[in-house]
Write a structure and sequence with these properties.
elongated, Jelly Rolls, 141 residues, alpha+beta, three-stranded antiparallel β-sheet, homotrimer, 3 helices
């Protein structure tokens, strides 16, 4: 068996404001560059108003419905205690808590174990465009 | 210290339609077969309309309440943009986003670090019975 | 490259009843003691009515809004099937499912890859004070 080793990097992702930005390809390319057959990939979003989700990457309407649902669950027009960074800030924190900032995906037989319809998305919850840092780490052989 | 090594597999789980299907025993058996004392287990659901959760495994009423709550949060009778795969499809994606598809559990002293009342569940969000693939990966010694 | 190794422990955290209890410093101290430069940290909450989240650690009002939101999403005054452990028990399970019990954070350049405003919180969902066990595991070099 080959010796276990690890690698890490940080991807910088530009977002256009509220959106699901697919980052599967950027991640898969970096993973392929590590030349491992089996291992564990971790994806970590370094922000509190953006987050990560693994969701269906075929029908664009799904992403629209997911964003609509997040907006209904944590609406802007609620009276929040924390309101000094704009009306979209506190809802962004709630939506980030709801979806989460860390994901782990096994690498099996040289490929990420994602299902046929699964894509990895960075979810931007603020109205303005941002640059977001996503840390990647892999352990394997 | 024993050398670190890794192993992975895919479990195929039959679901009866919307339900929390406990998979703790299947996972614990596979982990025991790897003969490790300390390590990190990753559980990954390869679908976008089924997901994973760790929840109370004592009272069956808890599972009923969790499913009821998911149904109230992401109801079928909303007008979704994505509606061409049946009324239970888009709610299933939302419920999967809400609960997540990857879990990590440390292995300490030869046992998964699950608490006394914690069980690992595959959550089926579609109405029909399905076969679902759950990838397992362990790194340890 | 230094040889990969692993370490694990269990932190016992006292909670005052419903609250976000920041545990970033306890975790960072234990991680520093392991003397690794690069690796993967896993944080695992061994309970079904407490959970984990990574959230903004600057404005205290954010934590109040997050707790308020969780209380609105899974209110105590709903008629749950599981009601024999008190009115705050089933809402606690739902809120724990919503936020999750496992987190993974890469260690890069000798530091956890947390963003500037990110703190790791144990979320107590029960009304009474509790002692909660949080398992930590790290793999790295």
């Amino acid at each position: 068996m080959a010796d276990l080793r690890q690698a890490s990097t940080v991807l910088r992702i530009a977002t256009p404001g509220q959106a699901l930005v697919e980052i599967t390809r950027d991640i898969a390319r970096w993973v392929a560059d590590q030349g491992m057959d089996e291992g564990l990939l971790t994806v970590f979003c370094r922000h509190t108003s953006a987050s990560l989700t693994i969701q269906e990457n075929a029908a664009p309407a799904v992403q629209r419905d997911l964003l609509d649902w997040l907006a209904r669950m944590a609406p802007e027009d609620h009276r929040y205690a924390h309101d000094d960074e704009g009306p979209d800030d506190m809802p962004a924190h709630i939506r980030a808590m709801l979806t989460g900032v860390s994901l782990t995906v096994p690498l099996i037989g040289g490929r990420l174990a994602l299902g046929t319809w699964q894509g990895i998305y960075l979810v931007e919850h603020r109205r303005a465009a941002h640059r977001r840092d996503v840390a990647l780490h892999i352990l394997g052989a």
